[in-house]
Each structure stands twice: as structure tokens, then as C-alpha cells.
Amino acid sequence: MVGASGDPRRPAGRPLEYLHRYGYPGRVVPVNPHRTAINGHRTVSRLSALEPGSVDTALVVLPAPLVLDALREAERIG
Questions:
Q1: Which of 2, 38, 40, 70 has the fewest CB atoms lying closer than 10 Å?
Q2: Are 20 and 69 in contact (CB under 8 A)?
Q3: Phi/psi of residue 77, each to 5°?
Q4: Where are the beta strands (DSSP E) in the chain?
Q5: Are 61 and 35 in contact (CB under 8 A)?
Q6: Residue 74 backbone phi and psi in degrees, to 5
Q7: b/e 31-42 (16+ beta carbons within 10 angstroms → b)
Q8: Nearest CA to 32 among 9, 21, 16, 51?
Q9: Strand partners, 41
Q10: How far, CA to CA in Å, does 38 sit from each of 14, 64, 72, 75?
Q11: How far is CA 77 from CA 9, 32, 45, 55, 73, in A?
């Protein structure tokens, strides 16, 4: 989740809260350059910190001017 927040009141925090609350069993990697962990999940500062091909879905919750760069980075890691 690119742009993840630890605040469940914010749009960038709600998906992580829901995944946690309803027991999603899959791997979740929050992407946030300002935090080391969110809701017990270790964060990475950028998508490029992940292994190529290791992500099957990316949820991008960033301000509009940053979205295109995040999508390009997601494309680069496959």
C-alpha cells in the first residue's frame, strides 16, 4: 500500500485498518518513507525497495501529483 498511514481516520489508513480488523491472511507491505512500521507491518520507504515480482497488487493512496510516479515505480518492479 503506497502512501500508507497509521491513522485509521485518514483515507490512507483505512485499508490497513480493515485488512487488520477482518484478518486478511496475505502479506501486506506499507510504503511510507517516514515510518518504520504501521499497525505491526514493517514499512519500506519506496516500492523499489521490494524484490521485483514480489507484489501482485498495489493500492496507491497518494496526492494526485505523486500517483503517476508511484505507478511507474510499480511497473518497474513488476
A1: 40
A2: no
A3: -90, 0
A4: 37-38, 41-42
A5: no
A6: -60, -40
A7: bbeeeeebbebe
A8: 16
A9: 38
A10: 12, 22, 24, 24
A11: 30, 17, 14, 8, 7
- Rounded distance, CA 55 to CA 15, Å? 17
Q: What distance in Å separates the CA atoms of residue 56 and residue 10, rounded to the nearest whole number? A: 24
Burial classification of residue 71, based on how many CB atoms lie within 10 Å of its CB (0-12 exposed, 13-18 middle, 19 or more buried): middle
Under DSSP, the state recorded for 37 is: E
Q: Which three cell numbers stand for residue 57?
A: 497488487
Consecutive 10-residue averages of pLDDT for the chain (78 residues):
94 92 92 93 93 90 96 91
**What amino acid occupies position 68?**
L
